[in-house]
């Protein structure tokens, strides 16, 4: 039976439409990424970003370990006559957190505007150069100034790495991706603790041991800058910026690699979630306060103000707390090194459980464990018990750390993710500026028990904020959480 030319044309058009690729949208880019199996390529990206986090944490956490060397060299004093004295160890710690505050609150938007990859690279170089200059300072003023400058770069890097990982990791491994980041990152803690134990009491080649600790970390960060070339830009960020063709090229190359490693065709992407902010620019500060983000931002501000008290109250003061418990300086550095070995174990545990337990549940449970271990630590002078409770504090703090770093990146949409995470996270840095002085005063007036009662009160606030206000996020697409 003959058909009309018009009917034939209609069938041809329908066939062409059926075989045409779907229109590229930001939602489709995200759906394609979230369905990827966790092959070697995906984990390689996460590992490279985690190496950046390793050297970042090295720089962030060496304060407490080099403090005895700074005192020994005569640059700083253990305590000061006035609360805000700028020649004591507390001022050195506060300078770092002042820089971190500026880096997160004022510069977090840079990764939203210029891309995750570029800001990851340049913030790394920034704080590396600042640390190298700091290693050659001989005055409290010079030391604190360059610690502040380094802190700005570290603050930007912290925000960027978390944002980067949340957008590159498929949703079904997002929790484990952050556990991996923290596991690799916290390897820096026993590393810097052991180096401090070996070097801080000595002066190899006439160069103070604490200076060697700083310089070694700076050289490692340069290595990470070199390997960053392997990392692609975030396809989600490209799509949100309206650079859909570029996002498609990045995704196509990634899909080809993953499919080769997977050994069979990739599963089809799920139906795309609506992306409310696609191609609408970088997003504004005001967008952070629109429902439901305002409630989430408020919750994370409260959380970050108080979690800092527990995390850095122990991590940055552990040698001093041990000395206050009657342990000698040399032994305190040795005990600190043993306790620090536990730092990566919490996130390693997370590689097994992170995507099985709701993020908010893990945060609340670990804050409770922090209270128990801290109060028990303050009541003993037995070496083995102190080490055991120190390990318990470290494990609970670091499981809580990978959980909340994943959590806060999940709560905001792509257009404001780095800006919002930077803003809410900056409150932890603002809190830490004053926490170091408060803990110094509490330690002087009320001893170790007073310090851990103070920490316990802060952890109770953490439990209430997340437990009562936090939404669920486990195994959900970032775009769905955004709604």
Q: Which fold name is given in CATH as the topology?
A: Growth Hormone, Chain: A
Task: Categorize the overall geometry.
Answer: globular
Query: What would you report as the Rg, rounded to the nearest angstrom?
Result: 24 Å
Largest sheet: none
Number of helices: 20
CATH top level class name: Mainly Alpha
Count of β-strands: 0
The domain tally reads 1
Distance between the termini: 54 Å
Strand content: under 5%
| Helical residue percent band | over 70%
Q: Based on the structure given, which CATH architecture is correct?
A: Up-down Bundle
CATH superfamily: MFS general substrate transporter like domains
Return the structural class: mainly alpha
Explain what the structure shows.
This protein has 483 residues and is an all-alpha fold. It has a single domain (26-482), classed as Growth Hormone, Chain: A (Up-down Bundle), CATH 1.20.1250. It is built from 20 helices and no strands. The protein has helices spanning 5-19, 26-34, 40-72, 89-105, 110-114, 116-134, 140-168, 174-186, 188-199, 209-227, 235-240, 244-262, 293-315, 318-324, 329-340, 345-353, 359-377, 383-410, 417-469, 478-482. It starts with a helix and ends with a helix.
């Amino acid at each position: 039976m003959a058909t009309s030319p018009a009917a034939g044309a209609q069938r041809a058009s329908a066939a062409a439409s059926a075989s045409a690729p779907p229109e590229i949208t930001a939602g489709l880019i995200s759906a394609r990424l979230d369905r990827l199996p966790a092959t070697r390529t995906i984990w390689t990206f996460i590992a490279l970003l985690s190496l950046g986090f390793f050297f970042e944490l090295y720089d962030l956490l060496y304060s407490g370990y080099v403090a005895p060397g700074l005192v020994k060299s005569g640059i700083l004093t253990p305590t000061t006559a006035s609360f805000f004295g700028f020649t004591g160890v507390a001022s050195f710690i506060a300078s770092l957190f002042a820089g971190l505050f500026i880096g997160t609150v004022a510069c977090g938007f840079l990764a939203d505007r210029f891309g995750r990859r570029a800001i990851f690279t340049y913030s790394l170089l920034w704080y590396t150069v600042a640390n190298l200059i700091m290693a050659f300072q001989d005055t409290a003023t010079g030391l604190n100034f360059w610690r502040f400058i380094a802190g700005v770069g570290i603050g930007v890097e912290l925000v960027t790495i978390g944002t980067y990982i949340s957008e590159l990791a498929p949703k079904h491994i997002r929790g484990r991706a952050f556990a991996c980041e923290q596991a690799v990152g916290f390897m820096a803690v026993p590393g810097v603790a052991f180096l401090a134990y070996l070097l801080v009491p000595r002066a190899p080649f006439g160069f103070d041991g604490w200076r060697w600790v700083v310089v070694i970390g700076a050289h490692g960060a340069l290595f990470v800058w070199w390997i960053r070339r392997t990392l692609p830009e975030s396809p989600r960020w490209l799509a949100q910026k309206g650079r859909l063709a570029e996002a498609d090229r990045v995704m196509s190359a990634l899909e080809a690699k993953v499919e080769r490693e997977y050994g069979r065709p990739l599963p089809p992407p799920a139906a795309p979630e609506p992306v409310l902010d696609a191609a609408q620019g970088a997003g504004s500060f005001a967008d952070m306060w629109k429902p439901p983000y305002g409630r989430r931002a408020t919750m994370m501000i409260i959380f970050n103000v108080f979690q800092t008290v527990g995390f850095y109250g122990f991590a940055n003061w552990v040698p001093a707390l041990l000395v206050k418990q009657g342990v000698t300086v040399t032994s305190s550095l040795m005990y600190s090194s043993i306790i620090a070995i536990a730092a990566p174990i919490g996130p390693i545990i997370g590689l097994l459980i992170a995507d099985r337990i709701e993020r908010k549940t893990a945060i609340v449970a670990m804050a409770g464990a922090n209270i128990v271990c801290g109060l028990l630590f303050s009541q003993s002078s037995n070496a083995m018990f102190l080490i055991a409770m120190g390990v318990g504090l470290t494990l609970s703090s670091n499981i809580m750390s990978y959980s909340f770093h994943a959590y806060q990146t999940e709560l905001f949409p792509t257009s404001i993710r780095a800006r919002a995470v930077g803003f809410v996270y900056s409150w932890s840095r603002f809190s830490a500026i004053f926490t170091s002085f408060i803990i110094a005063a509490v330690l002087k007036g009320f001893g170790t028990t007073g310090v851990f009662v103070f920490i316990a009160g802060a952890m109770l606030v953490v439990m209430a904020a997340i437990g009562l206000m936090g939404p669920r996020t486990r195994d959900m697409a970032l775009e769905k959480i955004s709604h």
